[in-house]
């Protein structure tokens, strides 16, 4: 090795961004393997690279022992003391064993190993660089496409754009410049793999941050985004400064700011609405451009009924229900849209139903009262009959008692008893 090697390492560090220390470490490890393989050596070997002169030195490392069993790994204490009287048992001594032709052999043997380490270092650098762009936006150039992916060149690496992440009906040609949202960065065995998207809602958020300084610095905040990529999107914004209109700020002078985003997304329509802490107001804003008359909530089901004028029912629902669907995604409520006439008809039906219910209830009460009255009358009659029977029984008992207590009958009974006693005697 010579200074040309050092110059090559400097160029590699400049072009590839790989530190010389990484390459030299890989080179030393490769040279150890090359020496053992080419010179049939199995002892402990160290390779030292001189970063000033570019020279390579190979050293055999041996341990100082009293009795030598393996001369390739050990050296006696007597031989060690001849080299330096400070050596003791257990010390390690390095002996230079650099072959004369080692430079040529080492270069041939270590080439593949060095290239492998260089590739690994490049992969690590690329991964560490692009993992910082995860969940962020980047600009790339369309290079090619196949049945599965569109490959976008981001500079040092190609990113893949799957069909699911593409904007429907958007065509991509080679050398087109597009902005993509980095969804995931993986460090695979084949190197870093970057997945990007054009349909992700956060792509819209990053584009607004680029076009609207107030969003980037936090004065205006994007609260929620509902998007059907390539067709239409709704963005709810709020302002932390009472003097700043969040919707006007995002639209920009003559609509320039929002138009730049629409152009980037190939004509995707944008509805920018103002967020409000009152859910009814927020839902009314989300259904723009339709006007809302009334909003009734069902908190148990997380839904609401929105009343709009008859002539704006189709506008509120939107094409294929898109306006109502995006408003529901934006606000988080299930939205049922009714016209004023439908609500009036429902109110009449409900009123009639309530009247019928009241009439049925009155009839039921009257029937119940009649039944109770009949039952009460029967009970009264039964009570009277029972009372009369009770009185008759009382009178009979009284007569019987009087008969038993009659004095004349008592005297007759006594006389009969005395006559009976005489007969017995």
Automatic annotation (TrEMBL):
Q: Does the keyword Repeat apply?
A: no
Q: Is Metal-binding a UniProt keyword of this protein?
A: no
> Where does the K Homology domain start and stop, copy by copy?
229-292, 300-392
- The segment(s) forming the S1 motif domain are 133-199
Entries under PROSITE patterns matching the protein: KH_TYPE_1
Please give the Pfam families that the UniProt record associates with this protein: KH_NusA_1st, KH_NusA_2nd, NusA_N, S1
What Gene Ontology molecular function terms does this protein carry? Answer: DNA-binding transcription factor activity; RNA binding
- Subunit field text: Monomer. Binds directly to the core enzyme of the DNA-dependent RNA polymerase and to nascent RNA.
Q: Which HAMAP family match?
A: NusA_B
Give the protein's biological function: Participates in both transcription termination and antitermination.
Name the family the entry cites: Belongs to the NusA family.
Put simply, this protein is called Transcription termination/antitermination protein NusA
Source organism of this protein record: Carnobacterium maltaromaticum LMA28
Q: What is the lineage of its organism?
A: Bacteria, Bacillati, Bacillota, Bacilli, Lactobacillales
């Amino acid at each position: 090795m010579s200074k040309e090697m050092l110059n090559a390492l400097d160029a590699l560090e400049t072009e590839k961004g790989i530190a010389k220390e990484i390459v030299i470490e890989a080179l030393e490890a490769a040279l150890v393997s090359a020496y053992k393989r080419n010179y049939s050596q199995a002892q402990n070997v160290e390779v030292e690279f001189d970063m000033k002169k570019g020279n390579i030195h190979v050293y055999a490392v041996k341990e100082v022992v009293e009795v030598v069993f393996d001369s390739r790994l050990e050296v006696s204490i007597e031989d060690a003391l001849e080299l330096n009287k400070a050596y003791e048992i257990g010390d390690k001594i390095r002996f230079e064993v650099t072959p004369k032709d080692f430079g040529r052999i080492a270069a041939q043997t270590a080439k593949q190993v060095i290239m492998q380490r260089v590739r690994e270092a490049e992969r690590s650098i690329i991964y560490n660089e692009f993992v910082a762009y995860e969940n962020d936006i980047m600009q790339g150039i369309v290079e090619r496409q196949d049945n599965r992916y569109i490959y976008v060149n981001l500079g040092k690496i190609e990113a893949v754009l799957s069909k699911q992440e593409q904007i429907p009906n958007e065509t991509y040609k080679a050398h087109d410049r597009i902005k993509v949202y980095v969804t995931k960065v993986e460090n695979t065995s084949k190197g870093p793999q970057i997945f990007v998207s054009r349909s992700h809602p956060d792509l819209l958020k990053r584009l607004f941050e680029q076009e609207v300084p107030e969003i980037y610095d936090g004065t205006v905040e994007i609260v929620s985004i509902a998007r059907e990529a390539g067709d239409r999107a709704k963005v709810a914004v709020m302002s932390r400064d009472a003097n700043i209109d969040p919707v006007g700020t995002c639209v920009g002078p003559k609509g320039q700011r929002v138009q730049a985003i629409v152009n980037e997304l190939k004509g995707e329509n944008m509805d920018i609405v103002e967020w409000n802490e009152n859910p009814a107001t927020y839902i009314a804003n989300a259904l723009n451009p339709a006007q809302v008359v009334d909003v009734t909530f069902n908190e148990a089901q997380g839904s609401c009924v929105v009343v709009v004028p008859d002539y704006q029912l189709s506008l509120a629902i939107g094409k294929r229900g898109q306006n109502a669907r995006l408003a529901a995604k934006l606000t988080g409520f299930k939205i049922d849209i009714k016209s004023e006439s439908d609500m009036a008809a429902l109110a009449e039906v409900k009123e009639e139903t309530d009247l019928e219910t009241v009439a049925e209830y009155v009839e039921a009460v009257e029937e119940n009262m009649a039944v109770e009255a009949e039952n009460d009358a029967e009970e009264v009659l039964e009570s009277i009959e029972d009372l009369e029977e009770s009185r008759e029984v009382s009178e009979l008992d009284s007569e019987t008692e009087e008969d038993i207590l009659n004095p004349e009958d008592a005297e007759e009974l006594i006389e009969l008893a005395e006559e009976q006693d005489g007969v017995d005697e």
